[in-house]
Amino acid sequence: MNKFKLSLLSLAVSAAGLSSLAVAQQQPPAEQPAADEQQVEVIQVKGFASSLFRSLDSKRFGDVVSETISADDLGALPDVSIADALTRLPGISAVRTGGQAAEINIRGMSGGFVFSTLNGREQVSTSGKRNIEFDQYPSELINSAAVYKSPKASLIEGGVAGTVELHTGSVLQNDKDHSFNVNVRGMFNDRANEVPDGEDTGHRLSFSYQGKFLDNTLGLALGYARLYQPSVATQFIGLAYNGQKDVTGNGQNEFISEGFEIQHLGGEETRNGYLGSLEWQPHDAFSLKGDVFISKFDRESFARGFRVKFGGEQANYANPVLNNASVIGGNVSRSRQSFTRVELVNDDNRDYDEVHSYGIKADWDINDRTNLVFDVSHSRASSDFRNGLLWALVAEDATVANPVFDNNVSISYLLNGLNLPSIGFNQAEAFSDIDRVMVSKYGIYPFVNTDEVNAVRLDLSFDLDLPLLRSVEVGARYSERKYTNDRSVFEYGSDGSFLNSQPPLRLTADMAKVVNFKGDFSNYPSYLAIDLDKALNAWFPQGIPQPVQTWGAGNPGVINGDPNASANTSWSVLQSGEVYEDVLAAYVMANLDTEIFDLPLRGNVGVRRVTTDQSATDLTDVGGDPLRGAQNIVDEAGLVNNQYAPGILGEKYTHYLPSLNLSLSLTDETILRFAAAKVISRPPINRLASNTSISISDDGEVNGSSSNSPFLRPFEANQFDLSYEYYFGSGAAVAALFYKDIKSFINDFTIQGFDFRGAGFAVPDVIINEDGVPRTTFDGAFSTAVNNDQGGYIRGIELAYTQVFNFLPDLWSGLGMQLSYSYTESEVQLINNLGGESIETTFEGLSKNVVNATLFWEYQGIDTRINARYRSPFVSSQVGIDEQITNFDSELVLDFQFGYQFNDNLKLLFQVNNLTDEPTKSYFGQPAQTGTLQFFGRQYFVGAVYSF
């Protein structure tokens, strides 16, 4: 076994060092090695190749199926966020938001199945879901990231797709006593000139310091990273097919769309990240480390253009063009009963997100064989999203005292698949006429959520050095999580008409300007871009009203209603609430180190026991009956509702999660790896919120509904991995197979004969109906989100190849490549009817083919590379008026970077992201039914890195 361990050490050095770059120099050994020792040629490896080989070492000697990325130092990764860096790994792809990677998909599964940690600690999200938003994490503050595709018992549970573990590094493990890094880059977006008031320049700036003190017993790391970038896009968004009408006159209904949007998006994004780490190691047997990570991401954006509302089944349709049974073109005009119109939109959105992560870890070698690790952590995320919408409509004449909405609305359109559609409006000239356009409605829809988890963890390991067992690990973790969401709303006016009680606003020349579409969108009509602040100050001279949780004057439960409210907005309170989740986990794991058929075998086997206690606040509509628990509920504005009974709903359950990881060394260069495990992913935290409503009919039948449910259980899966890995002096080749048997999914379902009382609802035994007759209540149907038992498999193959061509002549010895390909398929089929007809789609996030290729070259200070990321069509969500699940077209994203190292301290960089200006394109089930066509532009970076 000692010879084997020596061989592994030698191979590790070999893998990290035998790729000879042009700048590499052989280092002579300090002394002649003993005769029975293997002599190793030590090569100095720098730059991108160095990062690749460290990643290969981590994969090779890891005890699970994993992929890693590694930086030379803080600030060395070139990417805007850690998400961009992760997408270069095999089997990993990204969903782009605003043109940049924000959510990652692993092995064909969406971000909701990805669990993430920072320095081994669970991270919560600003999204209201489980998956973190990776663009919240600056790459400059991350030293390394690992993607665990197979779990082991000691890892925190939660990732059916995989677990992403981010690390900020350890100062005391650095070679240098002190290091300082400065990274400065200017940025330019080449599509910003197409967006009115769009910013075209931005910057990235980061500082980091790492130092060791007191004879290398005290380490300090400090980091700051700032990103300021314009956010620009021009987009067409098709809206869901939510209606039916016989438009052909054949006696059968066709599916009709709600409409479409054509808009300019602009604004700015500012992210400030902070890192602090203090590490104390007074002697070899004990260390104490504290970490702080804070990221503040502020987005201020606007959307300007127009939204077309076809008007539903009451609208007039002429010359319809069909795709099967769905209308994709024709002439749509307003009837007396329809609400057909064109809305000029001038929206302002503000999103202030913060992520905080704190932790203290003590690591103590009690004796030569026993190690104890104790960790306390806190993770907190908050999001304050303020959606401000300003609508304008076309009047017959805006100059008169009592303007009238122009009902003469006619729209002609023809979708063009994954290309921009043909569109015509009879009111086109009016869209840019200040004497025709009037502001008709303003609405503010804030959504504030917080998510935090406090955890304590204890891990104990015992070295056994037995013929089979190398060590045994046991541990426990307890966490308490609380999620809170708070909705509020203010509305004034109407987006479909002019109200006398809340009259529209006449625009003046200083409030608006004419905007023309450019480039690919230049054929579309001009429109008025309205200055939101000037318009609101004119409309509300006494001050802009603030959003409140308004119950609405029409609600009979209101004691102090808003007399100006035009709609019942009690949904804002029903969609507010809290979720609680307490988790107690314990594990035992044996680490294996033995031989089979004279071949070294390593790995681990263990089981993790997880008990979850989850609950959520609930408001049950009991019709104001105090005998059924009705209470006066007062919102922030002092408005009172007495219709609801507050309560707590939830349940407790336990999972046992066994896992096995085996690594068999067939030769010194080849490894056969096998893994099997049972895994879980909990539902999105916001889907555990209770927004339940129940009703009791006149005969006593109790029925209810909830789009979410505090009774949802985790997704469960059994998974298997098999990989063959070949490592050679200048690279590696890997082939892997994986299979996931998903046991259940979350679907909306109606449960007949639901036990309302048993579930905690305040249901009376008897009611008095409208005729004054007592009726005994009985259980009816409850429609809610449930875990169904219809799962299915996800399976695939991954191929990866990495090589530095060190055998080439001197000029080309620094040439290298990193290639990966993954094929994924699934029997899971989801039903999507947003395109009208019910169509089976693939599992959300699944691309059958994902290809990643990087070609790099390093020579005498030159460091250049080009990266291509391709993914075939997949299903994901897009945002229109509401979130829509659509099919996304395949995409190929190219990035390029060139750097020159002037000396040991200074490096200049030039970088282009999205080199070919690849847009995002989506469709509803079939390409003919256009979803999103969004163009972001290229991002250019020029800057320098200075380190010493």
UniProtKB/TrEMBL annotation:
Signal sequence region: 1-24
Pfam (any one): TonB_dep_Rec_b-barrel
Places the protein is found: Cell outer membrane
Origin: domain of life: Bacteria
Keyword Cytoplasm: no
GO cellular component, one term: cell outer membrane
Domain (TonB-dependent receptor-like beta-barrel): residue spans on this chain: 445-915
The TonB-dependent receptor plug domain, residue ranges: 67-162
Keywords in alphabetical order: Cell outer membrane, Membrane, Receptor, Signal, TonB box
Family per record: Belongs to the TonB-dependent receptor family.
Protein name: TonB-dependent receptor
